[in-house]
Amino acid sequence: DNGSRFQSIFREAELSDAIIFFDECEMLFAKRDSGPSQVTELLTELERFEGIVLLATNRPFDLDEAMYRRISEVFEFKQPNHAERLEIWKLLTSHESVPVEDGIDWEAVALQYELTGGFIKNAV
């Protein structure tokens, strides 16, 4: 049962003074159609919990509206601009463990491919 599992997670976090982190939280806190749902149970546990809960999502518009009333701070990480992408490319390819062909124009790569830091890391 998800409800009791969520209760256990929050209770364990409270007892150990831990931070709870929900990655891709839209999967858990998606908009409700109607009636009781796992979202309702999660929101109840979230309200009771006095510790820190961090939520990460790439799809904030998929979150249930009631979730936003319980969020005290929102931090948005935007896609890096050209200069930031160039810095990421250089940083991730500077290690000796990453074989890189000489003469790569990282400036052109950063300009042409508008990737996030995660995609750049995966490419390397």
UniProtKB/TrEMBL annotation:
Pfam families: AAA (PF00004). The keyword Nucleotide-binding applies. InterPro entries: 26S_Proteasome_ATPase, ATPase_AAA_core, P-loop_NTPase. Residues 4-78 form the ATPase AAA-type core domain. One of its GO terms (molecular function) is ATP hydrolysis activity. Keywords: ATP-binding, Nucleotide-binding. This is ATPase AAA-type core domain-containing protein. It comes from Pseudictyota dubia.
